[in-house]
Write a structure and sequence with these properties.
17 helices; Rossmann fold; TagF_C; seven-stranded parallel β-sheet; globular; Glycerophosphate_synth; 15% strand; CDP-glycerol:poly(Glycerophosphate) glycerophosphotransferase
């Protein structure tokens, strides 16, 4: 069996790698297809470090040419792909989403039918089946979390790697790129949390796309504080930071839910920087961007209405980390399905059975 992973964005890797590990364990040949961009040297080094067989393409046209030539059994995608009709002449396609957040795009990415989509939990599976009754959806759980659930990461080693003080508790700030809270944070906010380690893990777009250059300027300023570790491009995976942190501060990012399903306390920033065409009479655009369950998911965290609420909430959550435990556990199944560390195995079992 041969399997290809279409890796248009670097942040797809944390979802792909646990599946790749399982495939390699049964001697299945895998290839990662990377798309040329501004971080090629970093990605090439990551591929070398992870012993990934890889090729590079300029665009999706080159990608489909390669897929037609290779005729793999399966090609994985984290999002849609415009040449599925051509691909399906030679290979089967599998969709493996890269996040479990509250954005409506989680569901709309299935509008172009793949051979199968692996999803997280029975709730999401049923919603997708209702929207796309002719397509196949398989509930496998959230394979991205397998390395944490299987104890593959060491908190002490990670603290040392990032130069963090083992005597301090650790705050993880993981904002998304849009709509984001980044621009609403003070320029010197890490000074308000000088008794804590602060890890800042922005979305890949915040550090790679020109339209978010103001966000990058703020991130670089914050990185100058003694207690701050700013994740670099090569820190593409959120998993080590989820493992090491004691509390998460986020906004509409999938990171918020990934942390919560580990039964750790979350603070949700409600203060967001919205573009003018998302405000006032155009607020429907923001609502359309978010999933219909956005309001239900909100109960999984305590909410900071403004930055000034943040320090108090951090202190309260660290003092009583189990305060919202029952809600987190209740919503975990709805958000991520099975959390037993075997999601990747279930995916590989499906792939091999369909040969």
């Amino acid at each position: 069996m041969k399997v290809i992973f279409d890796t248009k964005s670097l942040y797809y890797l944390p979802q792909y790698l646990p599946v790749n590990k399982e495939l390699n364990g049964i001697d299945v040949s895998t290839i990662f297809v990377f798309y040329e961009g501004i971080h090629d040297p970093i990605i090439k080094q990551l591929a070398l470090d992870s012993d990934l067989s890889s090729i590079w393409v300029k665009n999706e046209e080159e990608a489909i040419d390669f897929y037609e030539k290779e005729q793999a059994d399966w090609v994985f995608f984290a999002n849609s792909f415009p040449y599925l009709d051509r691909l399906h002449q030679v290979s089967r396609s599998a969709q493996l989403g890269h996040g479990i957040g509250p954005k409506a795009s989680y569901y709309t990415k299935s509008s172009r039918s793949m051979s199968v989509r692996f999803v997280e939990g029975d709730y999401r599976k049923k919603r997708l089946e209702k929207m796309f009754p002719d397509d196949e959806f398989v509930d496998v759980g959230f394979c991205k979390m397998d390395p944490i659930l299987n104890g593959e990461l060491s908190k002490d080693d990670l603290l040392k790697r990032y130069g963090l003080n083992k005597q301090r508790l650790t705050i993880l700030y993981a904002p998304t790129f849009y709509p984001s809270s980044i621009e609403k944070f003070p320029k010197d906010w890490p000074a308000d949390f000088q008794d804590y380690n602060v890890i800042i893990k922005p979305h890949y777009f915040s550090i790679s796309k020109k339209q978010y250059s103001k966000q990058l300027s703020l991130l670089n300023r914050w990185s100058e504080f003694e207690n701050v570790y700013l994740a670099k491009t090569e820190d593409y995976s959120l998993l080590p930071f989820l493992e090491v942190a004691d509390v998460l501060v986020s906004d509409a990012s999938s990171a918020l839910f990934e942390f919560a399903i580990l039964n750790k306390p979350v603070i949700w920033c409600d203060f967001l920087k919205l573009r003018w065409n998302y405000r006032g009479i155009f607020s429907y655009k923001f609502k359309r961007r978010m999933d219909q369950d956005y309001g239900d998911y909100a109960a999984i965290a305590v909410h900071a209405k403004k930055y000034q609420d943040l320090k108090r909430l951090v202190e309260e959550q660290l003092e009583s980390p189990k305060a919202l435990e029952s809600i987190r556990l209740e919503l975990s199944e709805k958000l991520a399905g099975k959390l037993d560390g075997y999601s990747s195995k279930r995916i590989v079992e499906y792939l091999t059975q369909k040969i």
